[in-house]
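**User:**
Everyone, produce one record:

**Assistant:**
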Amino acid sequence: MTDLGVSILAAVTADASLAVLGAVIGCAITIVGAGIGIGFIGGKAVESVARQPEAANRIFTTMIVSAALIEGVTFFALLLCSLIIFGNR
C-alpha cells in the first residue's frame, strides 16, 4: 500500500471516530435535555396544582402529554445517534 493509501485510510478512520464521538456527545446532550425538560414540567405541574387544586386533572393530563412528546423526541434522537454509532462499524 502506498503512502497515499495509508493516509487516506487514516483520514477515513479519523472521520469515523469523530462521527462516533459526535454521536455520543449528542446522546448525552439529548438525555440531559430531556431530563431537565421533564423535571421542569413536573415541577411546574406541582406548583400549578398547589395554586389551583380544582384544576389538578387537567394539569396532570397536560403534563403527561407534554412529557410523552418530550420522550418521543428523545427516543427519536437517541435512535439516530445509535444508528450513527453502530452504523459505522
User: Anything to note?
Assistant: The chain is about 90% helix and 0% strand.
